[in-house]
């Protein structure tokens, strides 16, 4: 039976349907790697401001540059598949462990302020979701936050993207297929222009645009910590021939020096026999990931295993 994309109404976590909603989240984590949140507590007014300012910023500061890039690379007239470019216009805001917001050029002051406010809300939501995951996994409250903490707290940042109309969306992807390297990803996506797809049972499935929703997906680190109980899932963006898709993806990731390994409570059997994933320093994983982002994740885990066996990390 074809299952529908999981949509979670967070309001119901406060009522007598809590158990069923928790099960729905657990099922989404096990079978989809993705779910979409409604009534997540972030005000619609704030989200509307973020959307308006992001679209305005694109028109004022990014669109011309994108068009010039397309023209200079001849991307609008390709006649065969392009596997080394993405049809996206992006910039990155870092919030934690320290903010880079004041160094980003061309951000209007009110846009800067609204994005700061949004990031604070998203950080709270991320930690709330991590605790729901802890509960479902049978881990103590705060386990995942602590696992990500390292010595300076998590890395938390936002990639602001626009996927402008693309004349050849079958030849150039908006964003090529990948799994996310980090922890928990929170996405505010355009509610009118679709394009995000995830790979499920060998088929690409649309992540449905919904007004004022936040889409959550799980990165490679949660696969490792859960010893594969939850998995990161391949996804990609298909640009549209008409319509510009906005997407604001926030990455709640481990700190650079956080040591990542399967939670002992989720490793079955004696000693380390049931441990399916390696132990490593998050930054070592990221150094590897940048070069192989658009490849399968399994060789990344294997490379980390090889590193672990030559240079084991003391148990902390
Ligand atoms: O734009 C999107 O919807 C997804 C972006 C994404 O997958 C990423 O930046 O890792
Ligand atoms: Fe992604």
Description:
The protein has 316 residues and is α+β, with helices and mostly antiparallel strands. The chain has one domain (2-310): Jelly Rolls (Sandwich). 35% of the residues lie in helices and 21% in strands. It has seven helices and 13 strands. The strands form three sheets. Strands 1-2-9-6-11-4-3 form a seven-stranded mixed sheet. A four-stranded antiparallel sheet has the order 5-10-7-8, with no helix packed on it. Helix 1 (18-31) crosses helix 3 (109-137). It binds 2-oxoglutaric acid (AKG) and fe (ii) ion (FE2). Fe (ii) ion (FE2) binds at residues 178, 180, 235.
Distinct ligand kinds: 2-oxoglutaric acid, fe (ii) ion
Query: Would you tell me which CATH topology applies?
Result: Jelly Rolls
- The total of helices stands at 7
Structural class: alpha+beta
Keywords: Ethylene biosynthesis, Fruit ripening, Iron, Metal-binding, Oxidoreductase, Vitamin C
Enzyme class: oxidoreductase
Organism: Cucurbita maxima
Pathway: Alkene biosynthesis; ethylene biosynthesis via S-adenosyl-L-methionine; ethylene from S-adenosyl-L-methionine: step 2/2
Question: Keywords, please?
Answer:
vitamin c, DIOX_N, alpha+beta, Oxoglu/Fe-dep_dioxygenase_dom, Jelly Rolls, ethylene biosynthesis, 7 helices, L-ascorbic acid binding, binds fe (ii) ion, globular, binds 2-oxoglutaric acid
Topology, element by element:
Blueprint: E1 7-9, H1 18-31, E2 34-38, H2 44-73, E3 89-96, H3 109-137, H4 143-149, E4 155-163, E5 175-178, E6 184-189, E7 196-200, E8 203-206, E9 214-218, H5 220-225, E10 235-237, E11 245-253, E12 259-260, E13 280-281, H6 282-292, H7 298-310
Parallel strand pairs: 1-2
Antiparallel strand pairs: 2-9, 3-4, 4-11, 5-10, 6-9, 6-11, 7-8, 7-10, 12-13
Helix pairs in contact: 1-3, 2-3
The structure holds 2-oxoglutaric acid and fe (ii) ion.
């Amino acid at each position: 039976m074809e299952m529908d994309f999981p949509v979670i109404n967070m309001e119901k976590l406060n009522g007598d349907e809590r158990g069923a909603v928790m099960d729905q989240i657990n099922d989404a984590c096990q079978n989809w790697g993705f779910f979409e949140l409604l009534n997540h507590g972030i005000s619609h007014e704030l989200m509307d401001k973020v959307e308006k300012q992001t679209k305005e910023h694109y028109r004022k500061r990014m669109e011309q540059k994108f068009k010039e890039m397309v023209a200079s690379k001849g991307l609008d007239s390709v006649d065969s598949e392009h596997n080394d470019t993405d049809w996206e216009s992006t910039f990155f805001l870092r919030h934690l462990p320290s903010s880079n917001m004041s160094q980003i050029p061309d951000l209007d002051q009110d846009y800067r302020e609204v994005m700061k406010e949004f990031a604070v809300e998203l950080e709270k939501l991320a930690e709330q979701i991590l605790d729901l995951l802890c509960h479902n996994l049978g881990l103590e409250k705060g386990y995942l936050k602590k696992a990500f903490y390292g010595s300076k707290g998590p890395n938390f940042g936002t990639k602001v993207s626009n996927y402008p109309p693309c004349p050849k969306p079958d030849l150039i992807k908006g964003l090529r297929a990948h799994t996310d390297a980090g922890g928990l990803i929170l996405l505010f996506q355009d509610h009118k222009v679709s394009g995000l797809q995830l790979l499920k049972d060998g088929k690409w499935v649309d992540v449905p645009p919904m007004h004022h929703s936040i889409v959550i997906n799980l990165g490679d680190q949660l696969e490792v910590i859960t010893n594969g109980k939850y998995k990161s899932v391949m996804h990609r963006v298909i640009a549209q021939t008409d319509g510009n898709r906005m997407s604001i993806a926030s990455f709640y990731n481990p700190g650079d020096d956080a040591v990542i390994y399967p939670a002992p409570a989720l490793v079955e059997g004696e000693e380390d026999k049931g441990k399916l994933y390696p132990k490593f320093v998050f930054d070592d994983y990221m150094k590897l990931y940048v070069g192989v982002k658009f490849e399968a994740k399994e060789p990344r885990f294997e490379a980390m295993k090889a590193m672990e066996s030559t240079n084991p990390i003391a148990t902390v």
